[in-house]
Design goal:
Isoleucyl-tRNA Synthetase, Domain 1; alpha/beta; 4-stranded antiparallel sheet; 15 strands; 22 helices; Gyrase A, domain 2; single chain; Rossmann fold; 585 residues
Amino acid sequence: MRAHIEELISQALGYLKREGQLPADVEPAIEIEHTRDRNHGDYACNIAMVLAKPAGMRPRDLAEMLRERLPASKRVERVEIAGPGFLNFFASTHYFKVVLRDILAAGKDYGTAAEGSREDVLLEFVSANPTGPLHVGHGRGAAYGASLANILRAAGHRVHREYYVNDHGRQMDILAVSVWLRYLELSGEKVGFPEKGYRGDYIYDIAREVRKRHGDDLRHSGMAVAEGLPADGPDGDSEKHVDALIARARELLSGSGYQACFNAALESMVDDIREDLGAFGVNFERWFSERELESSGALERALKRLDAQGWLYEKEGAIWFKATELGDDKDRVVVRENGRTTYFASDVAYLLDKLERCKGTSLYIFGADHHGYVPRLKAAARGLDEDPERLEFQLVQFAVLYRDGKKVQMSTRSGSFVTLRELREEVGNDAARYFYVMRSHEQHLDFDLDLARSRANENPVYYIQYAHARIMSVFRELDSRGQRHNQAIGEAAVARLETEHEQQLLRQVGRFPEVIENAARQRAAHVLAHYLHDLAAGFHSWYNATPFLVDDEDLRNARLNLVAAVGQVLRNGLDLIGVSAPEEM
């Protein structure tokens, strides 16, 4: 409807330009808003106030001229002028008939635009280092990213979802050494564990698998491991200590032995993350390996491009990127003194690879603590002679769990954080997916575990799902009475839907395509979550106030058409945010 009204106004503006009432070069943005008060119609436009000065006339006079030149439309009952010059549009009964017909005919496709009608989007999200299980912070990024991907696709974008696996570099080496040390413990060796090592039961699980595969082949004495190492913290330098441990592991294990620990750790963690996300309804078209950047030559090509553009320099044996000249807060090392490339160099290569694969937007979803990546990646794009406007960043704020009104500090299983798997096991996928997106991703989220588990109207996901279950119960009751739902009769009798609840619901279901469009444009999954809650509230109120299965056949079928339309929209919307629509509760 919004697009239809915009087209009507555009045509009216064209008439005024041809008549000389408006300058021919005026091309205003036509903004159509929903009215807050039904007495002011369904949609309002302020175009007369925007153009009053260029037109040299009073806004209300211009509004009147526009109203007179609006093409006739069966979807608009009437247009009124209000206040200083608003054009208020009232939807017609014909429009509501078309809306219900469209919903029931399109089914699960209602609200979606043709795929490819908007630019392509390469969406990277989660991308947690494979050094431990996913925690509840990762869960919010996963739920938001997956929901946004669905919303963007529904709005007409071709979306490619990608997970960037950091399977190369120092943190992975620390993980491999942590596994090896636990393997030695399981083999009966007494070894110290570094302050910077990875702890938790999952490290022992991987170490047991390594021992199962390799027996004592990787075993060395605790004395051989510790001899000559710099002191660990707190009295020593924990960073130097763990780096020396990595070097010692490489020395004692040789290439194949060290790689056995490294690969076992990597495979176990990536498999665990993939399984966890899959069970959460979060999937990707590609799991992109950081190591591919080097093996494919992408890393070398990106650095050569920066160098050819004059953005690299040497200092103290390292190669630096002149990031400060391109908008970053400091220059960045891309090649260390030892000749090894940095994480940032990989980020640059991955950025270039993404821009070359996707001609649209490369959209990054980062945790809020990664805000510093925004200026450095934009600087990298400029250094590569690529358009930084093709990069987009959405930062997801932290989620804090509460139980019995108190902040949850830690997990009994992992010892340091609550895992996504533990959260899903406690509250279920549906509650987790909805609660994660019911607030703007730009806001901190207080996740109430008790509320998420409850089966009460105060639980928003239960409230929405219960509305859908009630809808399905209406049709079960219809069958039990031996009656049928005749959509054609219901369509012809749309004018019988006269109550305030019915009029509100007709307008709400008609807005669904616009809600998807707004959520996609604003990158705001919570816009859809709020809409679904409001739609459920409208249905519950109608259900409690109005009998549906009345003797009057026309009225019964008209109401059943609306009931079915609300159910379809609830299913479609819940599916976009990864929540089920149960038929019974």
